[in-house]
Amino acid sequence: MEDTQVYYVDVLLPLHLPGTYTYRVPQEYNGEVQVGARVVVQFGAKNSRMYSAVVRRIHQETPQWKSKYIMAVLDTEPIVTERQMEFWEWMGRYYMCSPGDVMAVALPAGLKLASESAVAIHPDFSGELSSLTKYELMVVQLLTDHPVMRVVDISRAIGIQKIMPLIRGMIEREIVVMDEELRQRFTPRKAAYVRLNDTLLSQQQAADSSPNLGEQPDSQLKALFDDLERKKRVKQVEVLMQFLQLSHFGKEPVAKRELPQGSALQTLVKNGVLLVEERIESRLKDYSDAETTDPRSIVLNDEQQAAFSALHSPLSTHLLHGVTSSGKTEVYIKMIDEVVRDGHQALFLLPEIALTAQIINRLRKYFGNRVGVYHSRFSASERTEVWHRTLRGDYQVLLGARSAVFLPFKDLKLIIVDEEHDNSYKQFEPSPRYHARDAALYLARLWDARTVLGSATPSVETYWNAENGKYGLATITKRYGGYSLPKVECIDMKEAHRQKMAKGHFSVQLLEAIKDALDNKRQVILFQNRRGFSLRLECDDCHEVPHCVHCDVSLVYHKASNSLRCHYCGYSIPVPQECPACHSTHLKMTGVGTERIEEDLQILFPEASVARMDLDSTLQKNQYLEILSDFEHRRIDILVGTQMVTKGLDFERVSVVGIVNADNIINYPSFRSFERAFQQMTQVSGRAGRHGSGGRVIIQTYNPHHQVIANVMDNDYQGLYEEQIQERRVFRYPPFYRLIEITLKHRDADLLNSAADWMAMQLRGAFAGRVLGPEYPLVSRIRGLYLKQITLRFERTEPIADAKRVIRQIGDDLTKQDGHSGITLIYDVDPS
Ligand code: ADP
Ligand code: ZN
Ligand code: ZN
Is the dihedral of CA 614, 355, 423, 684 positive or negative? Predict the structure, then answer.
């Protein structure tokens, strides 16, 4: 019987809005609308815009206001689960933003189709038109004439209202893509492949019974080898041999990047021996055929075994504190295996995408195609696909950077937060400014799952929780395989320069260590936490330093682009020939970044292959993967980088790690600066000598007696912790207090000041001495907006939910005042 009742839905929109909005369900959709599925609704001024909204609740309560009808139903099945929506709501409350803000970040772009979304023909679309419907054909034709169009404009042009379901279908079949994806520099995965010239191949295959070249005297290939050898083309012979090995004697094409790049390869191609062709590489690789190893075959050593047992205490959260290369990953794999064998799911979080490459392989070795990977460097369509597959329950192990906490889990029983101390877990922009470790702990509560926080250098907060019995503690004190931790040396750079024991930015000791490593065919990692070539250009006569016009920072010199650039807003100018203030031509560079270190090393070690990994060198998709793969396959001898090189990487042949300037790291202005300096230096040190060969770490500093450096040299986490926890208590920081930081922004400094003063006064009225500020932050203007900060601190034991409501109320009151309406307010809960 037809359902003729009147239904309403409360929906969530991916917008900065306080709550849900109610729409009426047209009768034709009765029974089709589901909680967690998307519907199309109009929203905004004059109802001009359409959005995909997620249904939060279906009911029959007639709303106070006349409500509009939903326009269409996009999904017949939920794409968001009930628990996910609860998670969004918690996140909105805790981090002082709206569930819509959370939804906007949580859903992959591919699921947020709106009338304002621009779409284009999918770069991989085959052009096959026969399977398209009439309207789909019209869309394709339109987009052929106008490469990028907004959904509304398409709807107008072809004259249909229900455009979004149509476009959704075309997105799913990869006929069109959303522009967000194009803006992410979407490129179909094409790569150059090399194969053997067919004429050589057929001869070779005819004589394939024995792959030993020497026994095929009359093959053409053999003749070619003889010829090359006669002419002493050693390099070409080498390349060809390597190619034959990788291609299984010419049977399969080989990715060009796997062969030694250089003139030998070029000549072989030029002479028609090898042919190069472009091939499209599949997006999500299929691992169904891959052979897996039973995780039960891993044999833990005594310390690992003891840690593994300790992780099974009745507590739901544990800290696994194991030194670098102690084999924490193997312990995680054992934990995951238990969960997977019982049919449940595990989530494995990593702070940095660059790290996933290695861990993916280690997890796939044991769990094959049950591993799903999700992170922000994936294109929108890849992320949407992983989302759908997770919903279908295809994966039992989910691996990703912080956004993986938003996946639609089915049966989550274990969460691993590797490198839990890492600051990359905190999202800075946009809101929600969440910390993925803390969010994971809440997620675990929702699912009644266990959590393992792992680190060689735990955060002070986590260690404190473990010390106080809130978390269980498991410890591994030795490296796996009996290898020792690297020997850490500290070089006083002031002395080094005085005694002429330094060349530029490098001490003689560091240079000798590098040379030694290279001579022994070992690899080197150098850490410098600033990117660019030099940090400032300074006039030698009047000391003028070029600044950004939009931000209160000096511009950084980038040699590759020969420009001065702002690291806050991207503003860039050509390098001036003379001082803009006094026209002097005596401009000097001060402070060094990774680009400079890379260049200097290349000059000092011309034979070595030097590469750099920082934000600038990894802008393009997959570039970081190529660098890591080159390093792994030893096509790179020395890797220079920012904190990207400090983390988690497990490379066998790294024997030397250099920290070019420890002072930059230690002097970072934050209550966490010493903690973080210890973590970064210990972590990067941990990359050395992981598989024997006696690693060496050299720290260069102008402040050799600093306590933190002593802690790093002695691998004294405990010492660092005792000192820090004491300071935190005295100076009222976490874990004893919770901080909430409020940033106010406005173009007009006077208006900003009056708003900040008003807000601080109101907050003092409510919270008295818990309010600090307002004050200008270190960088007091960014992108043309002045900034002021007010910080609140609450004792850990105080109820905070009410305080947050009061704070938001004061904030809302502020922005409603006539003079202050243009103020932007940012709340950062647990700032780091
Ligand atoms: P961590 O994550 O603690 O820094 P890893 O898990 O990367 O250390 O371990 C360091 C190295 O030791 C890795 O190459 C790993 O494969 C190896 N390893 C650790 N535990 C075992 C084990 N039980 N059996 C075999 N190899 C192990
Ligand atoms: Zn000057
Ligand atoms: Zn700027």
Answer: negative
- Which ligand sits nearest to residue 537's alpha carbon? 2
Query: Residue type for 558, please?
Result: H
Tokens of 366: 């044991």
The two counts, helices (H) then strands (E), for the chain are 26, 36
Give yes or no for residue 288 having a pLDDT over 80: no
**Which atom in ligand 1 lies closest to the alpha carbon of residue 650?**
7
State pTM to two decimals.
0.83
Q: Which residues pair with 421 in a beta bridge?
A: none
Instruction: Specify the pLDDT at position 180.
Output: 63
**Is residue 294 within 8 Å of 341, Cβ to Cβ?**
no
Distance CA 722, CA 540 (A): 45
List the 563-565 sheet strands across, edge first.
572-574, 563-565, 556-558, 534-539, 587-592
- What is the residue type of 396? Q
Q: How far lies 451's CA from each of 140, 314, 372, 477, in Å? A: 48, 12, 19, 21
* 418 touches ligand 1 (CB under 6 Å): no
User: Which residues, in sequence order, are CB contacts of 521 under 8 Å at separation 6+?
Assistant: 634, 653
- Ligand 1: does its nearest atom lie under 6 Å from the Cβ of 300? yes
Whole-number pLDDT of residue 670: 86
Average pLDDT over residues 542-563: 91
The Cα 608–Cα 611 span in angstroms is: 10
Residue 575 CB partners (closer than 8 Å, separation 6+)? 537, 557, 562, 563, 564
Characterize the bridge pairing of strands 149-150 and 118-121. antiparallel
pLDDT tens readout for residues 724-733: 999 999 999 9
Res. 99: pLDDT tops 60: yes
Q: CA 413 to CA 354: how far, in whole Å?
A: 26
Whether residue 689 has its Cβ less than 6 Å from ligand 1: no
Query: What are the structure tokens assigned to 732, written together?
Result: 């009222």
Q: Which ligand is nearest to the CA of 567?
A: 3
Which single residue is written with the structure tokens 């990692």? 525
Dist. CA 301 → ligand 3 center (Å): 52
The two tokens of residue 206 are 């005819």
Structure tokens at 816: 């409603």
How much distance in Å is there from the Cα of 392 to the middle of ligand 3?
Answer: 45
Cis peptide before 774 (omega within 30 of 0): yes
- Sign of dihedral through CA atoms 162, 167, 168, 169? positive
What is the C-alpha to C-alpha distance for residues 187 and 774, in angstroms, rounded to an integer?
46
Residues 243-261 have a mean pLDDT of 81
d(CA 781, CA 550): 7
**Side-chain half-sphere CA neighbours of 290 within 13 A:** 18
